[in-house]
What we know:
Blueprint: E1 3-9, H1 13-23, E2 33-40, E3 57-63, H2 68-78, E4 83-87, E5 91-93, H3 97-107, E6 111-118, H4 121-124, H5 127-136, E7 145-146, E8 157-161, H6 162-167, H7 179-189, E9 193-204, H8 211-224, H9 226-231, H10 236-245, H11 255-267, H12 270-286, H13 291-314
Parallel strand pairs: 1-2, 1-4, 2-3, 6-9
Antiparallel strand pairs: 4-8, 5-9, 6-8, 7-9
Amino acid sequence: MKVSIIIPTHNRLEKLRETAEKLRLQDFSVADYEIVVVDDGSNPPVTFEKDFMVSPNVRIIRLEGEERSVARNTGAREAKGELLIFVDDDITTKPDFVKNHWQAHQEFVNALAIGEILLPQETKNTPFGRFRQKLEQTNIPRQRGLVAEKNFCAAANASIKRELFLQLKGFDTTISSSEDQDFALRHTSQGGKIVFLPEAEVIHRDNALDIRGYCQRNEWGSRLMKPFYQRYPDLSINIERERINGLVKWGKEPFSNSLRKLLKAIIASKLSVAILFKLTDLLEKLAPDSSILEKLYRILLGAHIFRGYRKAIKN
């Protein structure tokens, strides 16, 4: 078999089904790929009708709340395909998705391939959706091909040869956030290449559809990134995170930086955040295209990332 598509899932049957349905309608021989759903403790357990489980073959592996890295690793070990494609359970794909990943690996041998991830059009039609899409595209390459950034990876749309994935021992289960970046860094540290595939485009239909949900998700991710910070303290992005979110170091850092941290602590307080959310709600109604609204989005997002980082330090 050529390809195994790994989908970790937990309590999102409706979105999972949409993801699987699109993957069953690929311009790729059904005999050459399979879909491996790793149900990580869903209640009720994931089930599909019998006719949904064939052409291509769909398998369900049951775990009991082991978290997504364990789920992905389990799916990879049980996979029969030469190439592994990882997608999340809230991803929808085009008919050429599998073909584009497969063909890229014929061109780029032993590479880690990362596809394009976009938001739904209905989300991009909202003020917050436009802000989020712009933000998430900031560090995305402008063209197809090899990527210089050694930590460039998004496990929601990634592919790698199964043999290579197992040699790298998969995703590190001790890292709960940025585990995909850690995987990319271990891959590149051994001479591996990363390639960006804009043609392998997917739509990400998650639940962070407004600024509140997005801030909560980023605070959660920032808090759980502590093992990643500790493993790569000299990584440029981690140095910058510490510089703007770490504890105040009077006399050991520029005075302006200490003041900036104090200001962020004030902005991140419950009262300040509540006021900023109210202002955001008002501007979304009265001035949805205002540059001030985008600035408020950035301030709120930064405040929640700051909260998560400080919680990680405290713990």
